[in-house]
Amino acid sequence: MTNTYGLGPVARWAFALGVCSLALGGCKGNAQPQAPPPPEVSVIEVKPGAVTVYDEYVAQTQAPDTIEIRSQVTGLLERQAFADGARVKKGDVLYVIDQRPFQAQLAQAKASLAQAEANLVNAKQNLARNSRLIAQKAVSQQDYDTAVAQERSSAALVEAQKALLRNVELNLEFATLRASRDGFMSSSQVKPGSLITAQQSLLTTLYSSDPMWVNFSISEDKLLELQKTLKHPPGDRPDTAPPFHIRLADGTDYALTGKLNFVDATLDPKSGTLQVRISVPNPDRILRPGLFVRVIVAAFENPSAIRVPQQAVQELQGLKSVYVVAAGDKAETRQIVANYRLGNDWVVDSGLAAGDRVVTEGVGKLRPGAP
Fold it and tell me: Do residues 96 and 78 lie in contact, with contact meaning Cβ atoms separated by under 8 Å?
């Protein structure tokens, strides 16, 4: 006997669920995968604008005139006539050396000159007498020749005594040392009572202050770049050079600008740099000799330059490129030439035009041709 069993309610529901699962699985296998959405990026439209790029150089100030004060005569220092660090004017008394020995020498030289002049008068009178007597053949030719020689010798002795007197007067004048120009004094190296040796003892140093020189050096690359900008060697026409600005050690900018004063004729073979000097007005004596400053000069000017953020530029093996949004909103790489940086931006020399849309953020998400 065969028994036939019908499906219960639970079995029928399980069968229905299995059929639906198979149907859904078949449908899912035939569906196409969805394309990922375009990456989100930030884009800017580049516009031309005026740009000035500056170069900075470490520099040091120098007094145009640094004069070592030394005596031209030997003697004891009597007094110092200036205060250490004081400002002096040309002709001001700095030191006085004991003048008494030179005054005594002057008196002696004057007396010797007076004696020589008296001997010259006597020799001239003797020659005049012998001239009359030789005409009358009352004296010998030898006596006449002796009178002539004595007159000439006396005249020469007078000139020698005058020269000696002038030398003694100069020594007396040199016993008072005066400032050769306006400037500021350093501290005195000697005190009153010290023995001063002529042309050896260093008494002090006089520094000029206005204008002030500023020395710095530039590399070979910057030299060639500057020559291309000026279209002539930098030292040939100093008046056409751009103004030089000074930044002090505390970060403040010096109010007055400097002018190109000197460019060395040759590069330093050891460092490969060229020495450059500018002259800066210094009426308020803000700049002191030996001060470290920064020289700032315009290296590049363009009234219609294009700038792009540094983060938008990719660098590989010395080449720079950016992503631009081309026709059809497709991303494409564009090689650019940019040699100057201004803040956080690159100044583009070539490769971009006004109106180009450049990707600035999300560059790492892009591939050439991606939407």
Answer: yes
